[in-house]
Specification:
6 strands; 6-stranded mixed β-sheet; mainly beta
Length: 77
C-alpha cells in the first residue's frame, strides 16, 4: 500500500482471509462491485467475495471497515 492520498470516490477497507498474495488493505473505488453487505474484487481471473465483520482497523490514521473472505467464483467471459 502506498502513501497516495485517497480520492473522494475511493475508500479503504481491510480484507481478511483472501487468496495468498492479495493486498490486505484495499482501495475500493466506484468501479468495485459491492455494497454495504459485500465486496467483490477481481483477482487473478476470479471474483473474490468478502462480507463485513462489523469490526474496524486503524489504517492511514483512520478507522476503516474489515471484510472477511467468504468465497471465490470464476469471472464469466
Amino acid at each position: 500500500m502506498t502513501g497516495e492520498p485517497t480520492k473522494d470516490s475511493e475508500r479503504l477497507v481491510v480484507l481478511v482471509g483472501g487468496p495468498p498474495g492479495m493486498d490486505r488493505v484495499h482501495r475500493i473505488s466506484d468501479r468495485t462491485t459491492g455494497d454495504a453487505t459485500r465486496i467483490v474484487v477481481a483477482y487473478y481471473g476470479r471474483h473474490q467475495h468478502f462480507e463485513p465483520t462489523g469490526g474496524t482497523e486503524l489504517v492511514e490514521g483512520r478507522r476503516v471497515p474489515v471484510f472477511r473472505f467468504v468465497s471465490s467464483t470464476a469471472i464469466a467471459e
